[in-house]
Write a structure and sequence with these properties.
This protein has 21 helices and 22 strands. Helices cover 36% and strands 18% of the residues. By secondary structure, the protein is α+β, with helices and mostly antiparallel strands. Among the domains are: 203-338, Elongation Factor Tu (Ef-tu), domain 3, CATH 2.40.30.260; 458-554, Orthogonal Bundle (Arc Repressor Mutant, subunit A); 569-619, GidA associated domain, C-terminal subdomain (DNA polymerase, domain 1, Orthogonal Bundle), CATH 1.10.150. Helix 2 runs parallel beside helix 9 (375-393). A hairpin with a 6-residue loop joins strand 16 and strand 17 (304-308). The longest helix has 23 residues, at 458-480. It starts with a strand and ends with a helix.
């Protein structure tokens, strides 16, 4: 097995590596997944949850394209919430509390059932490169394995160093060794590198927590799902809990700052701005006398509890002392302390939008190696890298999700065009077309594309066709049929809405902000429709959103047309920016370094001014 040449070798078995291996194998490629520990494939290194603000949209997009993360989340979740329901649908984001052990187990089962994937437990210590082209890897066991393409998804393992107070030790995750050799090889090949930092909170023995002192936090009464395929509804949900730190907790933690690697200069890497440690929150927000803590179960069959919001690298005795001052935690015992971890990353401006490196052909990076943070951000990069490595072998054009097509496109374009010097996390605010990029329509946006590239099954595609047919017929009916005053006025009066005097189009009634489909579903015209069709709540919700927000959606589509005009103007691959004397020196430097492929991408590069773009457009004859 190790003497053959594989199509693709995926290095790393985290969320990114799992999606990469699955995508490539499902596209017919022979894949070898090399991981340092077969027992931790698909491991949730930090919080036991999937989705969240903007992250939930990413998981639904992965599903729409034929990836696995959504289905595995649905099979192993123990609580589901649709976040931001009080806001507009562009902000709605699904989130699931997961059973950590079952999640990893399900990933491994799914990969083992996927044809064309082989597994090898070993550490990759070197890359084999000839004439700026990757040809294989070398492992710690001294094995050389050849492949046409390599995808690196090393997570936090590249030269990983763990910090707990003054203690420092090598590791890629608690209890697991760091990975060595790859960083040095990449540096020698000319790649620039940096260090980033992330952290995790302590885990607590749930048997020692007095949950009566905490506030229960339940999931949705009618839980949804991540996958667009019907995997059944979650029947029994487990509550999370809420509590708060206090001044006594803060005083104990502050007294330990002198022993914190965050403040004594031990940690050089930059941490995630939007997920700070508890000591960082206390230091930065001195005016706050408490911080919220989410107490999250790790699974159905374990008493281990994740203390979300209490990420720390302080000494273990200070962590223990402080956490016991939170009401309900007076007798708490730690399973393990929180820690910080530093690791190597490679600034993503060194990649093409396909996630292939610019310096070495057929070498792809995905996940935290590119400076991102989060399971969801890593998983979608793995999916795209797996697709594009397969397409590279088949001599096909790269598959690129545009900014107006998905959050996946926004994420990758941000990384490639702007780079990042701190762990990149996706937010809805990063997407300028978020009204179009909703979680509910990810299948409508991306499943036809997934079918075209060969990842989407016929079953999934047929389901989308039925959904689209349902939406089109229901939309036409709402624009054509009326509702009578007798049918709707009692409801309008109850809601404090102005009543109607004559029969009124259903679409006009539904466009009112305070009305939804449940208020009109007894109209005689709709009764006829539902006698002929089953009630499809997903399609009905989609129809209502498109109707209610049609004005905003049309405006955003106009913006997309302008965006696509610039995206359609390609810049020659070896364009010499030095001959453009009229553009700024900073613009010339950034354009030469990043080498955008379109005028649209060039316009999003930090340091490239509108006047620089005007010069480029003139030069291109536009």
């Amino acid at each position: 097995m190790l003497n053959k040449e594989y199509d693709i070798i995926v290095v790393g078995g985290g969320h990114s590596g799992c999606e990469a291996a699955a995508a490539a194998a499902n596209l017919g490629k022979e894949v070898l997944l090399i991981t340092m520990n077969m027992q931790t494939i698909g491991q949730m290194s930090c919080n036991p949850a999937m989705g969240g603000i903007a992250k939930g949209q990413i998981i639904r997009e992965i599903d729409a394209l034929g990836g696995y993360s959504a289905e595995i989340t649905d099979k192993t979740m123990i609580q589901f919430k649709m976040l931001n329901k009080s806001k507009g649908p562009a902000m709605w984001s699904p989130r699931a509390q997961s059973d950590r052990m079952r999640f990893a187990e399900e990933w491994r089962f799914r990969l083992e059932k996927t044809e064309n994937i082989d597994f090898w437990q070993d550490m990759v210590v070197d890359l084999i490169v000839g004439k700026n082209k990757i040809t294989g890897v070398k492992t710690a066991l001294g094995v050389q394995i050849s492949a046409k393409c390599i995808i690196l998804t090393n997570g936090t393992f590249l030269n990983g160093q763990i910090h707990v107070g003054k203690k420092q030790f090598k590791g890629g995750r608690s209890g697991e060794s760091a990975s060595y050799g790859i960083s040095e090889t990449l540096k020698n090949l000319g790649f620039s590198t940096g260090r980033m930092k992330t952290g995790t909170p302590p885990r607590v023995d749930g048997r020692t927590i007095n949950f009566k002192m905490l506030q229960e936090d339940h999931g949705d009464k009618n839980p949804g799902s991540f996958s667009f395929m019907d995997n059944g509804q979650l029947k029994e949900q487990v509550p999370c809990h809420l509590c708060y730190t206090n001044k006594e907790v803060h005083d104990i933690l502050e007294n330990g700052f002198k022993k914190s690697p965050l403040f004594d200069g031990s940690i050089k890497g930059i941490g995630p701005r939007y997920c700070p440690s508890i000591e960082d929150k206390i230091f930065r927000f001195k005016e706050k006398d408490r911080h919220q803590i989410f107490v999250e179960p790790e699974g159905l069959r374990t008493c281990e509890i994740y203390i979300n919001g209490f990420s720390t690298s302080l000494p273990e005795e200070i962590q223990h002392k402080a956490i016991r001052k939170i009401p309900g935690f007076e007798n708490a015992k730690l399973f393990r302390p929180g820690y910080a971890i530093e690791y190597d990353y490679f600034p993503p401006v060194q990649l093409n939008h396909s996630l292939e490196t610019k310096l070495v052909k057929n070498l792809f990076f995905a996940g935290q190696i590119n400076g991102t943070t989060g399971y969801e951000e890593a998983a979608c990069q793995g999916l795209i890298a797996g697709i594009n490595a397969s397409r590279k072998i088949d001599k096909q054009e790269p598959f690129i999700v545009k900014r107006n097509e998905g959050y996946i496109g926004v994420l990758i374009d941000d990384l490639i065009t702007k780079g990042t010097d701190e762990p990149y996390r996706m937010f809805t605010s990063r997407a300028e077309y978020r009204i179009l990029l909703r979680q509910d329509n990810a299948d409508i946006r991306l499943t036809p594309i997934g079918k075209k590239i060969g990842l989407v099954s016929e079953k999934r595609n047929n389901r989308l066709k039925r959904k689209n047919k349902y939406i089109n017929e229901l939309t036409a009916l709402l624009h054509k049929k009326n509702i009578s005053p007798q049918e709707i006025n009692p409801t309008l009066e109850l809601l404090g809405e102005s009543t109607i005097l004559v029969n009124t189009r259903l679409s006009k009634i539904l466009s009112r902000p305070n009305l939804n489909f449940n208020h009109v579903n007894k109209a005689s015209a709709l009764k006829d429709f539902f006698q002929k069709n089953d009630i499809d709540t997903e399609a009905i919700e989609e129809t209502e959103i498109c109707l209610k927000y049609s004005g905003y959606i049309e405006k955003e589509k106009e913006s997309v047309e302008k965006f696509n005009r610039l995206e359609g103007i390609e810049i020659p691959e070896k364009f010499d920016y030095s001959k453009l004397k009229s553009i700024s020196s900073e613009g010339r430097e950034k354009l030469t370094k990043i080498r955008p492929i379109t005028i649209g991408q060039a316009s999003r590069i930090s340091g490239v001014s509108p006047s620089d773009i005007s010069v480029l457009l003139v030069y291109m004859g536009r």
